[in-house]
Each structure stands twice: as C-alpha cells, then as structure tokens.
Amino acid sequence: MTKKFNIFANLKSDFASGLVVFLVALPLCLGIAMASGAPLFSGIISGIIGGIVVGYLSKSHLSVSGPAAGLTAIVLTAITDLGAFDIFLTAVFIAGLMQLALGFIKAGSISNYFPTNVIEGMLAGIGIIIILKQLPHAFGYDNDFEGDQSFLQLDGSDTLSSLFSIFNFIQLGSIIITILSLIILIAWDKVPFLKKLKLIPGALVAVVVGVMLNEIFTVTGSSLAIAKEHLVSLPVPTSFDEFKSIIVTPNLSGITNPKVWVIALTIAIVASIETLLSIEAADRMDVQKRYTDTNVELKAQGIGNMVSSLLGGLPLTSVIVRTSANSNSGAKSKMSAIIHGLLLLISVVSIPLVLNKIPLATLAAILLLVGYKLAKPATFKHFWEKGKYQFVPFMATLLAVVFTDLLKGVALGIVISIIFVLKGNLKRAYSFRKEEYADGDVIHIDLAQEVSFLNKAAIKLTLNDIPENSKVVIDAKDTVYIAHDILDLIHEFKTTRAIDQNIKVKLKGFKKAYQLENSSETQNHVTIEHYYDVAKRMMVKKEIKTEVFPD
C-alpha cells in the first residue's frame, strides 16, 4: 500500500508534466524513426515502452526513456548493412540482454566518475542545440528531422547553415503561432493566478490555441495557414489488419550472423553510456536531490530494449531532452514518465487525426523554453566564478557537444578535467619551506592528504635539489594515503643520498601501515579503488602515527 501511495501522491503535478513530455516526445519519436530508416511506428513503440516499461522498472524519479537521436546513425547503418528491419530487431534484443548483464555486474557505477562541470556543460550544450535546431521549425522551415542533435545534418547542411536558410523559407503563420505559444508558456510560469492552474499545463493550452488558430487560418483560406508538412505527421491505419502489420517481430535466424552481434554490442555500449549520462543529468536537475541506482537503471533499459524489439520498436535510452522537459514541467516522481507512455499509446490508437493537426511551431516554442532553461546565463556565470579549473572543462564540453555530438563532447570534457586534476594534484601533493635556526637551515616538506604515484616525479626532483649538509623534515601528519612508490623514494633518499651528502632527515607523522611491506593485499596499489580502500581501512583502524624509518 505504501508504494502505491508514494507513486500516486503527486498525481496532479506528474500528470501535467507527463502531458508536456508526451507532446514533446510525439514528434521526436516520429522524427528519429524517419531519420533511422525504420518504420515510423517503431519510434512510437519505443516511446511507449520507454515510458511504461522502463518508467515502471527504473528507480529514477525524473528520467524519461525513448528512441535516442544519438543512436540514429548506428541504426540507419545497421538496417542498411543487415538488409532487413526484422533482423535488426534481433540485434536490439541481444543488446538488451547485454545491458541486463551490465546491470548485474554493476557497471552502472561508472557514472560516479562523471565530473559535475562536465555534466552541466553537456546539459548547457544540449540546451543550445535545442534552441538552434528548433528556431527553423519556429519559422516554418522543417528540412531537418525532429530530434536531430548533430551539427552535421543528414541533408548535407549543418546547424548554422540551416539557421541562415530560415530567411528563404519564412512562413508567417508559423511565426505567429510560435510567438503566441511562447507568450502563453511564459505567462503560465510568471502570472500568479495562472501558476495556480497546475492541472492544466501551459503547453497543453499553447497546443490547443495553436491548433485552433491554424484551423481558422485554413477554413478562411488565409495565406497564414500552415501546410501539412509543417504539422505532426503520425501514420493513420485505415483498417485493423493494417494496424496489426505495424507490429514487426525479430527474425531470430539472424542470431548466427556475426554482424548482428557487433551491432548489438555497439548499441548496448552507446545506449548504456547515454543512459548513464542522462541519469546523472536527471539527478542534477532533481530539486529534491534524490539519487538513482544506475545498476537498476541498466537492467530496466535492458528489459525495455528486449520488449521494444519484440514489438518492432527502435532501441531506446534515457533521453536528456525528454528528461529536461519532464523536470522543467514540475514532475515529482516516475509516474510522469509512465503517464507520457500511456498517453502515447492511447493517442496513436484513438486520436491520430487530431494529433496530426498540431503545428510543429507550437512544439518548437515548448522546446525553445526547455533549451533556454538548460543553457541559461546564470549557469555560465556560476562556472566562471568557480575559476578556470571548473569553467574550461564546462565550456569545452559545451562546445564539443554542440559542434560534434554528446559522447565526444563528454569524453573531451572528462579528459580536460583529468588533466586539470593531475596538474592540481602534482602541485598540491606537498609543499616545502625553510626556517632559519641557529644551527642552520631546516627544510620542511609537508605532504598532502593523498600522495599517489603521480607525484613521484615532482617529489623526486625536490629531493634531488636539496643541498648537502641540510636538515630535512618530511611531515606526513595530515596524510591519509601514500603510494608505495613514494615511500620507496623517501626510504632510498634517507638511506643512501642523505648519508652520502650529510643530509639529516627526520620523518614525522608516518603510519606503520604505510610501510606496505610483507603485505600481499597491498601489493597492487596502482588503482584508484585501492587508494580509497586502503585509506578507508586506515581511518577505521585509527592507526597511531610513528616514524617509518627511525633515526
């Protein structure tokens, strides 16, 4: 009973946000299917499964799953290479099994290593992409498919050239509906008495007004009427047999084809990485700061892909655009994702003709606001104030996401973040200072909280530069972990060069556990996991600090 109460506790806000996500997801599902060279309904099926099945199994409160633009090129190439959509579905089923296995071996924990500035840079980049991609639709120029996030488009143009082409294809009716929709959406968020109407989302009002206005333009024969190609274009089955033919099942004879397994592995890896990125982003957007079990999410995605393939659907992932729309619309729980899936199912069966009257300009207005909220100026200001070590990876990720794709952008951001971490680690591993005493100089080397093998070169250089006849104090009182390499280096310095050059060395604050001698469990100390494991055990045992190498 408790679980049921929790799911339905926020039904009012979840229904409103689920409705908004449904409106956003409908053209995206169709657009991605068209760009993938797959049957149009395969995108809708994937959206339905992503909403209902994955939404139910997932532990994420905000994430919404469905067909992903990041898989479009992979799917298009795969269908072409395999020569049949039903054989491709076999690859999707196998990919789902692989994702399920990844969940059981806890591969989802990799998401813990995504830096915050990279995730925020990815979100801001996606926001800018949404704005750039939706502006043509807002003006009535729909050469690019809905949901495309790539800078280089399938028609040979790119995102920027499409923007310049707007002026050759301006449709005044689309502009009027876009502006009116934006006014409604902004007013619904800002005007006090409208904000109280939580059950009626502004997006629904904007869609209804857009449909009615275009119907008036059409009936009156106005030149402002929006043509069919600028409206949602959901296929309409004319008979029950035609509707049944929509469901395509996997051709299991393809299971012996090596290409099928290669494609399955590719889909499993890319879909899993995009899902983990989206989940991290969803958790960042959650105002309640709840965290998602990413291993459970991989299992949910795996089962979702298996079910989607059995019903003739495209591969799915957790999708940032839909997740962002869900969060911005005030979703409180995963019930909103399930509602969006149910609405997709009900609408395509019962009211496809009504849905086909929705202008793409209205949906563009909804997405333009989603994009702005992801890339608002306050985000840039926040990371600028945090300094270059936060701002540079943030901007690098953003620009790479916009001009290449999501995965390349995130990879670049992570690489730059690692370089900055290593650079900072090298600088902060230790500090040394001199103090004047009556009997001569005393050089103090104070080690940091963690000193890894990455600091070996810098410490070695410092020890080599210590002059003869000096007095050196190496202090580890604040140190939690020291790598074996560093201990060997200090030991060699104290027992060889220091003796040869009359350098007196005093070691302070070293723990006995740091000797790492005759201990089989500490021989492999080169992984980050081991660093933290050793440090944790030391902190639990509260070992007393003594000198490792007594005078």
TrEMBL record:
Keyword field contains Transmembrane: yes
Compartments where found: Membrane
UniProt-listed InterPro entries: SLC26A/SulP_dom, SLC26A/SulP_fam
Chief location category: membrane
Domain SLC26A/SulP transporter span(s) in chain numbering: 11-397
Lipid bilayer topology: Multi-pass membrane protein
Domain of life the protein comes from: Bacteria
Membrane-spanning ranges: 41-57, 62-79, 85-105, 117-135, 166-188, 200-227, 260-279, 342-372, 392-422
UniProt keyword annotations, A-Z: Membrane, Transmembrane, Transmembrane helix
PANTHER family, A to Z: SULFATE TRANSPORTER
Protein name in the entry: SulP family inorganic anion transporter
Origin organism lineage: Bacteria, Pseudomonadati, Bacteroidota, Flavobacteriia, Flavobacteriales
